[in-house]
Amino acid sequence: MTATLAALYLYPVKSCAGVPLTTAQAEARGLTGDRRWALVGPRGRLLTQRDLPRLRLIEPVWDGTLRALRAPGLPELPLPAGPLGPRVPATLWGGDIGGLSVSPDAPAWLRAFLGVPCDLVALPEDASRWQEGKPFRAPLGYADGNPYHLVSTASLATLGSATRSPLDFRPNFVIEGAAPFAEDGWRRVQIGAVGFQVVESCARCAVVNVDPAGNMTAEPLRTLARQRRQGRVILFGQHLILEGTAGLSVHVGDSVNVLDWSTEPNPSYA
């Protein structure tokens, strides 16, 4: 198999639009800047497209750090170089990770677009969060369950021909050159100079049904439920953790080498 990294994405603000990159640095928590910001409601619960599909329309302005937010019909919201504080609750799956309020202007701007009270927070440097109930361990930011997510162009094409709907699975890595769903059995991969352990198949939720206009629809989850259900979960894509030295970079066009694989698909611990 000759595979390459065809596309690379960063999601600075959890559940907001992604940023396509040509190169990014790999850290234990994920790509540098990936899901290090999030929106929280009045009680500190992190908000996602499951709650507010229109989050998909908020575009981060990224130049190595989060400089601003853009959304249809609103002026750009500039953001300071560093969080201003104070520290506030930021809970995900029942655990309080904590967050630093980023800008005093963010709540009004976000409410004007989303119609609900919320604030933009940044992940504190001393935040400590790890996977729960899984036989592997890596630090996490505001990502749901693992630091990295991989899909392949062949798997996307196979599903796309069945659903005839836009597909956005919010991957960090899009791999070209593998057979459809070959990634289900990958155990260890190297992208350029960076090694990763493939730790579980990704259990999909309703976020994949949010269309480009920010509306919740029925596809592709309905088709995935027929084709990719394993017990109580619906699977598409693979989760990874960093293996080896942090701080190395991946680049679009890097070769992808599968170092270990199995004929058995990776489980999901969701």
Question: What can you see in these coordinates?
Answer:
With 270 residues, this protein is mainly β. It contains 3 helices and 21 strands. The strands form 5 sheets. A 7-stranded mixed beta barrel has the order 1-15-14-19-17-16-21. Strands 5-13-12-9 form a 4-stranded antiparallel β-sheet. The protein is globular and about 50 Å long. It starts with a strand and ends in a 9-residue tail after the last strand.
Task: Give me the number of helical elements.
Answer: 3
| SSE topology string | EEEEEEEEEEEEHEEHEEEHEEEE
Question: What fraction of residues sit in β-strands?
Answer: 25-35%
Number of strands: 21
Report the sheet with the most strands, covering strand number, pairing sense and barrel closure.
7 strands, mixed, barrel
Strand order, sheet with most strands: 1-15-14-19-17-16-21
What low-confidence regions span 5 or more consecutive residues with pLDDT below 50? none
Helix content: 10-25%
Structural class: mainly beta
Mean pLDDT: 95
Distance from first to last alpha carbon: 30 Å
